[in-house]
Amino acid sequence: MEKTMDTEQETTNSLLKEVLNEIRQTREENKVFRDEILELKKENNKVKTELEETKKKLNILEIRVERCEKEMKLLEINDWFVDKKFDFISCLNVIDRCDTPLKLLHQMRDALTPNGTLLLAVVLPFSAYVEAGTNHKPRELLPISGPNFEDQVKSVIDNVFTPANFEVVSWSRVPYLCEGDLQQSYYWLDDAVFVLKLKDF
C-alpha cells in the first residue's frame, strides 16, 4: 500500500511540475515575473505537491483550517476570489465534495489571469458527497453522466467545462487512494486530472 501511495504522489507531482514549468516559461517569454498561485483543498489533504517546493507564493484555501504553515497565506473562504487574479489554480478532488461546485468553478474561472491555468482533479465515476448537512447531497448537481470512466470524462468536458468557458489542454487518468471507512481501510479510485485554460484566450 505504501508503495502504491508513493507512486500516486509521484504521478501527481510529475504532472504538477510539468504544468508549473510551462507557466514559468510563459512568464519568462512575456517578461512577466509575478507569481500568483492558488490551491483549493479539502481538510486533511496530506498529499505533498510540487507546488510547495517550487512556487514563491502559495495561497491556500481550506474549508476548515486548524493551522496554517508560515510560508503560506490563508485566504478567506467567502472572498478569496474578489479582486484577485491567479496565474495557476490547483483544485484536486474538491468539486465532488463541494456544496456548490458550479459556483466554485465559475469563481475559479473569474479568478484566473487571461492566460492562467486551472489544474482540476475529480474522481470518476462521479459521486458527490458533502460532509455538512443531513443528507450529504450538494445543492448544485453537476450534469455528469455515463456508464464508465471514458464516457464520464466526455460528459464532464461537454457538460461542465465547456459551458463554463474552459477548454481542455490535456487530461490524464491516475490512481487515487481514498481514506476508507468501517468496511475497509482505503479505497482504490480513478482520478481524472484536467489541465484547463480559458477558451477566449
Features:
single chain; 201 residues; alpha/beta; seven-stranded mixed β-sheet; Rossmann fold
Short description:
Pfam families: DREV. This protein has 201 residues and is α/β, with parallel strands linked by helices. It contains four helices and seven strands.
Describe this protein's structure.
The N and C termini lie far apart (42 Å). By secondary structure, the chain is an alpha/beta fold. It has helices at 2-29, 51-54, 101-111, 149-161, and strands spanning 37-41, 58-62, 72-74, 86-92, 112-123, 166-179, 186-198. A hairpin with a 6-residue loop joins strand 6 and strand 7 (186-198). It has two domains: 1-58; 61-198, Rossmann fold. The protein has a seven-stranded mixed beta sheet with strand order 3-2-1-4-5-7-6, sandwiched between helices. Helices cover 28% and strands 29% of the residues. The chain is built from four helices and seven strands.
CATH architecture of the largest domain: 3-Layer(aba) Sandwich
Uncertain segments are 44-50, 53-70
Instruction: Give the helix/strand class.
Output: alpha/beta
The topology string of helices and strands comes to: HEHEEEHEHEE
Provide the gyration radius in Å.
17 Å
Percent of residues in β-strands: 25-35%
Instruction: Predict the CATH topology of the largest domain.
Output: Rossmann fold
Please write the CATH class name of the largest domain: Alpha Beta
Q: How many E-type strands?
A: 7
Q: Largest sheet at a glance?
A: 7 strands, mixed
Helix content: 25-40%
Average pLDDT metric: 76
GO molecular function, one term: protein-L-histidine N-pros-methyltransferase activity
Protein name: Methyltransferase-like protein 9
InterPro entries: METL9, SAM-dependent_MTases_sf
Keywords: Coiled coil
